[in-house]
Records
---
Amino acid sequence: QITLKESGPTLVKPTQTLTLTCTFSGFSLSSTGVGVGWIRQPPGKALEWLALIYWNDDKRYSPSLKSRLTITKDTSKNQVVLTLTNMDPVDTATYYCAHSISWNSQFDPWGQGTLVTVSS
Amino acid sequence: QSALTQPASVSGSPGQSITISCTGTNSDVGSYNLVSWYQQHPGKAPKLMIYEDSKRPSGVSNRFSGSKSGNTASLTISGLQAEDEADYYCCSYAGTSHWMFGGGTKLTVL
């Protein structure tokens, strides 16, 4: 059974850097084709894809946020870390991580999500 | 790049069928057989319902089906049930190594 869980701060101040960790089980990020992605959802709004990292360290980023995002993995710890710099109140959202079974494939399953609020 | 276009809301009575559309462009929906659909109940994480345009994951009811024509993908739910009331999102691989979600559709079961 594949499970993922997001962790990180619930509150950050404007201009700070957000660091979120996705800890997973039930699969290995060293298996060919496998990836972990991040998706966020502002309160009451739609989902927005942010980034994805593959087993071979290939990284993909949302074009609109690429300059602010970094995604890394620690295969030995079964973790994927997302950083988002220069946080703004519009970045307030629930952040989800999700498993991707192969190149360009769907996201399944998802973690429970973690709500991050940006406020001074 | 803009999100994929979905109707804001659809509704139907129990037992009826409804269809949710998802319109993209020939750079995303129309170029790849990689549209997926997600169901999200309030306060919950999204759940995969359809992948690769029309494939259904194990455990998902066969009342859910997906299709695509040109730049528009569709999710059809037949035999509508109260538990189907949720938000639904489409997602497409958009080339150049990124993905796009639709704006979401709120399904109300009357």
---
Amino acid sequence: DAKTTQPTSMDCAEGRAANLPCNHSTISGNEYVYWYRQIHSQGPQYIIHGLKNNETNEMASLIITEDRKSSTLILPHATLRDTAVYYCIVRSDASGNTPLVFGKGTRLSVIA
Amino acid sequence: GAVVSQHPSRVICKSGTSVKIECRSLDFQATTMFWYRQFPKQSLMLMATSNEGSKATYEQGVEKDKFLINHASLTLSTLTVTSAHPEDSSFYICGAKVPYGYTFGSGTRLTVV
């Protein structure tokens, strides 16, 4: 699975959009970009994933650049409950039933 | 969506005793369960992979005789921390692969005193 690079931490004002970047310059053609988050003292929570098209669900939007070397997770109207560590993980479906490997992620602090 | 129920959410035990953590897949069958450990301000570290009906595979540096994993059915995997010591105090999380990605339990905070 390709390596990802994320900023260590970010702040966002409550009600504003939170834009979390992820660099995955070595991504290969069959690898998806997954985003998970972990709120303090809870298990990781799936947010969204995509291959090359932009994706949106009830939680967030995922914008993937045309060359697929980077992506941005967008929380459109951040709330205090969105304070968490956000993990960007690149993974191929061909990896089968193998575990998800977590990096350090980005610690997002939503400020009132 | 697919849910993994993990119990207990927190436990305090004395040094030298054993603690069992359970993870149940509530609405799907999990042939494989992944066990992670997380120390404060660190990321999740994979400890082992449990497979229904066979032996678990452990990551390098994880003592299989200390962290006993049992996956006797398609809906239940357990992790037993044997002869616990204060350095085993940590946050333990289980997870399983599902069609859209992975789903995780809510975690167990173990404190060994």
